């Protein structure tokens, strides 16, 4: 029996290698209370930051601590590197992409010097959230050990 009108599942991959945790565990209420959106966070163990979706880079914070991507299917994804790392003014981050560039899921976006950031006293927990939840349904997050640019950490259907 074929089901008509059934929505296709879409996947978001880990933006970093490490341990994926529920967004509610992030020590910042803007993320844990889902004020900006819903998603997952990663405690990184490696410096590479990868595109969680295929899409267009729509924003890069001048302090390099956050990057926004609009996926090819219209999902707005925010990758926020660390907590309060805006205060580092770009120190510890190296960006490899630019606004307007199309990237494939798993493509390297940035490097985040996790050791240097931790030594400055900042948390490296990095949320990856969908900010336009009005177009998403059935968001499922998968915590656990993840490989940056490879492991699926979120699945969703479009409205």
Question: How is the secondary structure organized here?
Answer:
Layout: E1 9-13, E2 18-22, H1 29-32, E3 38-44, E4 48-50, E5 55-60, E6 66-71, E7 76-80, E8 93-95, E9 102-103, E10 108-112, H2 114-119, E11 126-130, E12 136-141, E13 144-146, E14 152-158
Antiparallel strand pairs: 1-14, 2-3, 2-13, 3-11, 4-10, 5-6, 5-9, 6-7, 7-11, 8-10, 12-14
Task: Give an overview of the whole structure.
- By secondary structure, the chain is mostly beta strands.
- The protein has helices at residues 29-32, 114-119; strands at residues 9-13, 18-22, 38-44, 48-50, 55-60, 66-71, 76-80, 93-95, 102-103, 108-112, 126-130, 136-141, 144-146, 152-158.
- The strands form three sheets. It has an eight-stranded antiparallel beta sheet with strand order 9-5-6-7-11-3-2-13, with no helix packed on it.
- The model is unreliable at 1-5 (pLDDT under 50).
TL;DR?
With 159 residues, the protein is mostly beta strands.
Order of helices and strands: EEHEEEEEEEEHEEEE
Radius of gyration: 15 Å
Question: What would the average pLDDT be, to the nearest integer?
Answer: 95
Main beta sheet strand tally, sense and closure = 8 strands, antiparallel
- Find the count of extended strands (DSSP E, 2+ residues): 14
Strand order of the largest sheet: 9-5-6-7-11-3-2-13
Strand-pairing-aware structural class: mainly beta
Given as residue ranges, the uncertain stretches (5+ residues, pLDDT < 50) are: 1-5
* Helicity, as a percent range: under 10%
- Counting DSSP H or I runs of 4 or more residues, the number of helices is 2
Strand content bin = 35-45%
């Amino acid at each position: 029996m074929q089901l008509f009108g059934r929505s296709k599942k879409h996947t978001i991959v880990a933006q970093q290698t490490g341990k994926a945790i529920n967004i509610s565990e992030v020590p910042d209420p803007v993320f844990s209370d889902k004020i900006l959106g819903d998603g997952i966070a990663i405690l990184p163990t490696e410096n590479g930051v990868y595109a969680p979706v295929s899409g267009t880079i729509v924003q890069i914070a001048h302090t390099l601590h956050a990057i926004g991507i609009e996926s090819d299917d219209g999902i707005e994804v925010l990758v926020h590197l660390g907590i309060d790392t805006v205060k580092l003014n770009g120190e510890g981050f190296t960006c490899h992409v630019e606004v307007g560039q199309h990237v494939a899921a798993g493509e390297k976006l940035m490097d985040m010097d996790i050791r240097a950031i931790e030594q400055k006293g900042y948390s490296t927990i990095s949320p990856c959230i969908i900010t336009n939840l009005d177009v998403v349904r059935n968001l499922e997050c998968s915590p656990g050990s993840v490989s940056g640019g490879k492991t699926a950490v979120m699945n969703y259907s479009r409205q």
